[in-house]
Amino acid sequence: MSELRLLRARPSVLARLAAWSALEAGQTFLLGYALARAVDGGFLAHDPAHGLRWLAAAALAVVLGAYGTGRVHRVVADLVEPVRDALVRRVVDRALRDGDDAAVSRLTHQVEIARDTFAGLVLVSRTFAFTAAGALAGLFSLAPVLLLVVTPPLLAGLTLFALTLRPMARRQEAFLVADESIATELGALTSGLRDITAAGAEERVTADARVRFADEYRAARALARWGTLRVLAVGIGGRLPIVLLLVTAPWLLTHGVSAGALVGALAYLSQSLLPALQSLMQGLGTSGARLAVVLRRLTAEGERQPGAVSPAGGAEQAVRLRGVTFAYGPGAAPVVDGLDLDVPYGGHLVVAGPSGIGKSTLAALIAGVLRPDSGEITLGGERVLVPQEAYVFTATVRENLGYLCPEPPTAAALLASCTAVGALGLVERLGGLDAKLDPGALSAGECQLLALARAHVAPAPLVLLDEATCHLDPAAEALAERAFAARPGGTLIVVAHRIGSARRAGCVLLMDGTHTQCGTHEELLARSSFYCELTGSDLIGSEASHPALPLGDPYGVDPVAGPRLAGDGRHVIAHRAAGQMETAGDVGDRGSLGRE
């Protein structure tokens, strides 16, 4: 498991943990040994000063052990927090990739269980290991025969406890499954309370919720029943040795065991071994089983979806979709149905269609935010999705703009991207690259400009603009789109809401809910009445419109004939084309291509 491999990857932390634990275990050894020497060589020998010196040594060992315990807790934090961070990243990645309904329960409940129980497990495990080693070494130093009395019941108790771990883990998993089910159910209920009331479904919904609570209750009871065996194991391994030691005391005294050694042995058992064993069984029996189950559920990849999104360096196309189908739920109609799409490197594709038809869904599928129900999406490199609601965080302008870059970009590169997308004036008004940003003080359009500059400076060759310029005026939108289209080797996909975006693109993908059409803006105007209605009759044949001028296609698509559709009308080849710069009249067009 990758999270546990983090421990082996931190040998210096483990070495410090062992060193401080050894210091802490020193008090365990001296506790019984000093008592035995104080009794035998001091008080029974009528030399109280000698006995007091041994007791003082034991007290000093306690102080040193307490210091070691404090240092141990600091080292454990260095082990636990990286594991927690790794789990959070895994849960978030899984939620974004697969749409995990239990992500809230995993983040708010299970990750915290994992962190707390893992820390407790490390503490109790190393405490028992070092305490047992110190106590058994002390017993051997006092009288080896003492081990014959103590070791058998100790091993028997540990064996019984070990046999209960697997059944308890299974019941712990059943409990967590029930907990996740309740979290998912309550999340759906709270978001649909009005619909439930309107439909008069209160009793049915309440009955379903009661079933889930009953499942969790039964799982908790089963877990508690197995917990009783832990009490029996503690009794055998921790308390039975004390009883045996007292019962065999006369025999031990006749076989070379002194009175002081018996006192020291009782101290080892009652003050060291028994508390350490109780902590170990409590930690492993409850927290340890819970940790094993939680880690398995948090790190599981889940059921693999039929569809896949796979970045493939060296691919023939920047974007390749084959048979991609996606629906929001098992019973819902597909939003994208059997779509085949090729977008070559350097291509400029606009996705158009009425509101709610699935334009943003298609962009999310290509970006990897959603996973297809079936089919395959292959990308020729990294991609950047710029959504309609731009995200700007409290930090400097420089940190906001360079957020998507693996290495901090230079000031020249940042300013060049700001200039390209039209954000330079905004950056200057804000106070330059090192000025602090207050997201609440920015307008929606200003946030979009900063997000566009961030995507432009990023090294990802594929950029998806999902109505990312809807709060900008047409002139600013045209400037930004041309900047992305002009990136060397860059590929641009735009979910459009203005007619100017379609005129600037080499290819327009029209989604109308029944079948997919593809072509240049002029071709779709000529052959699709639906597209004419979508764009607005006042824009048809506008003299301000200049079609894209084909410069030849390195991908084998006829630049004159333009894009083509295959048999069922769902296979699209978006070819590479470069267009003549539009006039001011083009930029001023305000026709709508549909808002998602």
Relevant terms:
596 residues; alpha/beta; five-stranded mixed beta sheet; 60% helix
Topology:
Blueprint: H1 2-8, H2 11-43, H3 48-98, H4 103-142, H5 146-191, H6 193-198, H7 202-247, H8 249-253, H9 259-299, E1 308-311, E2 319-326, E3 336-343, E4 348-352, H10 359-367, E5 374-379, E6 383-386, H11 397-401, H12 411-421, H13 424-430, H14 444-457, E7 462-466, H15 474-485, E8 491-495, H16 499-504, E9 507-511, E10 516-519, H17 521-527, H18 529-535, E11 548-549, E12 571-573, E13 578-579, H19 584-587
Parallel strand pairs: 1-5, 3-12, 4-8, 4-9, 6-7, 7-8
Antiparallel strand pairs: 2-3, 2-5, 9-10, 11-13
Task: Characterise the protein shown here.
The chain has 19 helices and 13 strands. It has helices at residues 2-8, 11-43, 48-98, 103-142, 146-191, 193-198, 202-247, 249-253, 259-299, 359-367, 397-401, 411-421, 424-430, 444-457, 474-485, 499-504, 521-527, 529-535, 584-587; strands at 308-311, 319-326, 336-343, 348-352, 374-379, 383-386, 462-466, 491-495, 507-511, 516-519, 548-549, 571-573, 578-579. It has a six-stranded mixed beta sheet, sandwiched between helices. Strands 1-5-2-3-12 form a five-stranded mixed beta sheet. Helix 2 (11-43) packs parallel to helix 4, helix 5 packs parallel to helix 9 and helix 7 (202-247) runs antiparallel to helix 9 (259-299). It starts with a helix and ends in a 9-residue tail after the last helix.
Largest sheet: 6 strands, mixed
Low-confidence stretches: 301-305, 537-592
Helix- and strand-based class? alpha/beta
- The count of DSSP E runs of length 2 or more, i.e. the number of strands, is 13
The amount of beta strand, in percent, is: 5-15%
Q: Helix tally?
A: 19
